[in-house]
Amino acid sequence: MASSIPRPRTIMKSSIIAINPSFPFLHFLPPSPLTALLFSPRKNPKSLHLCTNFSTTLLLFSLSLLFSITFLLGIFLLGFLRSYQNSPLPCSVSSSPEFFAASLSSMSSSSLLDKEEGVPRLSYSAMVPLPAHGLSGNLSEPEREFWQQPDGEGYRPCLDFSIGYRKASAEISKEKKRYLMVVASGGLNQQRNQIVDAVVIARILEASLVLPILQVNLIWGDESEFSDIFDVEHFKKTLQADVRVVSTIPSSHLMLRQPIHSKIPRDITPNWIHSRFFNQLNKDGLLILKGLDSKLTKNLPPDLQKLKCKVAFHALRFAAPIRELGEQLAKRMWIEGPYIALHLRLEKDVWVRTGCQTGLGPEFDRVIAKVRESEPEFLTGSLNMSHTQRKLAGLCPLNALEMARFLKALGAPKSTRIYNAGGEPFGGSRAMQPLISEYPNLVTKEMLARQGELARFANKSSALAAIDYIVCLSSDVFVPSHGGNMGRALQGHRAYVGHRKFIKPNKRAMLPFFEDTTISEAELSSVVKELHAKSLGQPELRNYRRERDVIAYPVPECLCQKP
After folding, report:
1. What does the pLDDT read at residue 165?
2. 131 burial class (0-12, 13-18, 19+ CB within 10 angstroms)?
3. Where are the transmembrane segments (predicted)?
């Protein structure tokens, strides 16, 4: 390929520089002996009078060289100042969510690397959504209220690590003696949580991290590897100042009988991790952990909380094929106007695990009960609660009818375009009919994708979930029907990129009103709006509550506020 590239006709070289005269910037240089010397035709040395006016020529040459350098420096400084004034800052003074979304959307999601070190700049490495739509057109007051984005209160990403953390990074990022390997299980977002924790544990143990192994999912049978879902090189480069990430274990560290540590207690602290594993790791050189889900304490030191945000919102970028298709589908939704993304949890395994009734009638409920009896280990809800008690306690996902009533009560227009994330609902079209009857403009990725676009992701549940994640991130409003890992991940991610509207149904408080047949639609709407007035995606402090993960509540560790 290199031989086919045409070479410039004339390139003048000196012992210090090589300049291509076709380079357009050089045409702006003022005429001088320097440019004349570089670009004039060669002459016969014998015809030159070397000693004639040599001192004068040398003086003119020096002055022209000085003038040219000053001119170039001036242009450079002028361009730098302009770019500096227009560049997005980590903590902007603007509190407008629209401004913040627009400024982030102007950043390319591909890594813009530092020219010298090849390190992705954090302000450019985050996965950002398309900008929220402005409020325009003939909207009623309820519709305007529904699409209104929450006040971000001036919070912006601020991953300013301490001096002590940065000093320690110099050694930790070059570690080649200790290696940590982690096996991540579950669905996509459950695995993402474990990968985030794996990076933190590697940092605590001052170890290199081997790319995590994604365990084959027993429910969906997905055999995807890390590189199938995530951008490996971006992951490594983004974290290279924090933890050294390698693709494989060195042959010198392979052992025939390496133990796998899977019995890890909950709420483990950095001190516990260090005292339990560091000496062994220092001796063996390799530590393998499995079963990390929700084991690391939520209350970590500030630097490690920032590291979690850096991994979740910057380093864990999806692989290019997933990212490209997800962004295409998001654009197809976005170009038609504002849209809602729902994460409806109506899959068969969800009804089995929650111990809830489907709302589709006795025939479908008997199918779920039979599976639950044959595989009781899948049941995650309280065993001593009835179906009704589970539902009123907020432990069941909203079904299609309940979601339709919820959106209607909040003021969502009937013409609203809705993207439905999630798997195939148990009961098929019958399960979705109540929602489609109220909101007919409901689509899925299968409906949005063109012929053949999803073919490469057949039977790849994690890749399909990642595509859903990207489309949901760009939605104007996101509503999960049942919390879960994806709901929490999007809650934090939407907060991190400008506090995009996120409505988490208060099922425990709301469902008794749904059961009340005497209440009018207007009264129900008033009640539902009042119940959710303070949970629309506004900044919410984590407040060191034990159950609150910084990934879902990035304020105040990962988001700063400036007047």
Report:
1. 97
2. buried
3. 59-81
